Recover the amino acids of this structure.
């Protein structure tokens, strides 16, 4: 696989990460995502990691970094679908993903984004 | 990777296929999808293949089969995000995916499903 697809749904973008992000793939994803945020004027980004059963500190760092850079592009990122074992691993690695909003699944992530964005807009 | 995530968005399911479906993965996806359709009472299924740059006749057959079985479970499947090269390959393979609705991207797929499902419901 060369690229992780970024799917536009209404005014949000959805990324479903199903493979380990090695260096180049992570850099490409971040670049593609920022270009897509600019192109589509997306206000929200959902990153689904329900397909991942294992994460390492690199992956945690990438999630953190993507959230920060999309924030600078005026988009809010929500990480959704985290498996229980992944949550445990991240905390054991000392990464509590502070400042990153999480939701149980895509549906709940969308709900939160809608509320959050309507709150920001008002 | 063990499984392809199936994401619920409103009353639809979204599957983003990013890897070649070898035999067992394809069977698992089909089973998981049918279970999820039953669980969530989803009326629409979107299969995004924008991450695929190559398809073979097996993949074409799987897409066809998934569409047919979800139809029996009262859900409508739309294949979205097909790359131009993939469309050419499928036709060259003699698979025009007759009976499968396609859309350019997820957004347009959702639009079509909404119109189609409201038409069916009325």
């Amino acid at each position: 696989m060369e690229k992780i697809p970024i799917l536009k749904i209404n005014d949000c973008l959805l990324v479903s990460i199903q493979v380990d992000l090695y260096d180049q793939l992570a850099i490409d994803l971040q670049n593609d995502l920022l270009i897509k945020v600019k192109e589509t004027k997306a206000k929200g980004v959902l990153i689904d990691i329900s397909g991942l059963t294992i994460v390492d500190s690199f992956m945690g760092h990438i999630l953190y970094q993507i959230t920060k850079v999309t924030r600078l592009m005026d988009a809010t990122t929500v990480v959704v679908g985290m498996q229980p074992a992944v949550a445990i691993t991240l905390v054991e690695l000392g990464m509590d993903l502070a400042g990153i909003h999480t939701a149980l699944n895509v549906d709940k992530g969308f709900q939160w984004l809608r509320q959050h964005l309507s709150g920001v807009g008002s």
About this structure: The helical segments of chain A are 23-40, 57-72, 84-92, 106-121. Chain A touches chain B at residues 1-5, 7-10, 14, 16, 18-19, 48, 50-51, 53, 81, 105-107, 110 (CB under 8 Å).
